[in-house]
What does this fold into?
Amino acid sequence: MATKVIMPKQGLLMTEGTIISWLKKEGEEVAAGTPLFEMETDKLTITMDAEASGTLLKIVRSEGETVPITEIIAVIGEPGEDISALLGDAAPAAATAAAAEPDQAAETTSAADNAPAAVCDPDERVFISPRAKMVAEENGVDYTQIAPTGNDGSIIERDVLSYMANKPAVTPLAANIAKAQGIDLAGVTGTGANGKITTADLPGQAAAPAASAPAAPTAPAVEAPAAPAGQLTRGTHTEKMSGMRKAISKNMLASKSTNAQTNHRMTVDMTAAIALRNQYKALGIKVSYNDIIVRACAKALQDMPIVNASVDGNNIVYHDYVNVGTAVSVPGGLIVPVIKDADIIGLSGIAAKSAELIEKARDGKLTDADYHGGTFTVSSLGMFDLDDFVAIINPPESAILAVGKIAKTPVVVTNDEGEDEIVIKSMCALCLSYDHRIIDGAEAAKFLQKLKNYLQNPVLLI
It folds into this structure.
């Protein structure tokens, strides 16, 4: 009996996934528990195993397609098995064509060949074979402008090659204007060098009068001369957002539009924290500055439960636990693995868990549990020599701490004799972004005061 392969849900918030690659071809045997395809979610790229054994009868969704969760993407079954009932609305047009009489199919093909080609609607989902997509991208071709001729309504390699062969020569500026205004260049005659289409050839592109001689007759726009042979020609290119990038975009826009975000800054003397780190190092225990800051935040969050809370409609949700997320940069975006129970596992526990999560994040091996459930986030960019910055709150949390670099700075202090003097100290700028709907300015300032006290007196962290 045939089995549907669906887009699996990997995480509570996942709504869609992107198929990166199929590890089996149609007609090949697959075994349950062996790798079948690679997919990208909003957080990571993972390999999915087949849940049934048999033959991969049909790949319904191609590589590169983004598919809603639970939607069918392939079918596994026995060779020759009827799968039309399983496919339902997903059944390709090819299945219908194959069931037609030979002469009827021939008539359909002939009519399609003689009919005017319809360019893909850029607002609709574009179906394109992996091979055709590769050829298009290698040649800088916008495949949304190509008319599909594949049996299932998809763009295939011959469509791309035909489009490239018949594509009129056009200057980059004219091409950009035509694309922006939806002008079909197929019917435009070029008057530039070697018949190239310029901006003056585009319909509706009236030339502007010369600024230096307003009374002079309107002259056609003059295209910039072609670059000499061997000279670099530069333009633009477009890439689709990855699932992770789309998730970041969605979450950050939601944060800025939902939260009443504001921020407070404070500079902290990290001399004692540096000494604490060196003591751990002497004992053979690897502890980072970020680990110390996470531990200090956990202590301050215990003292200030409102900063550890969340907004739920008209309610304030107080969390009895302290789960601190740490922003980690990964190829193509940012991910925030969460250190659970940071208030009770101690500094060495935080250091061990942080190292484990960072390694899993960069290897793409985080599980759903690893990056959900945070109540507060720490984002450190000091390693990039950044003095200070403002971070955006990670919903549904109500605050985030941005940490700049630790830098030796001249500071005025009062000595034992009551006199002011300038000394060099290792200072670090902290910026707390908070949701003003539930956290008042005085409470945010008090949280930073407590955090500063813990960092400048790290014996309190042990």
Notes: DSSP finds eleven helices and 18 strands in the chain. The radius of gyration is 30 Å. The chain has a mean pLDDT of 79.
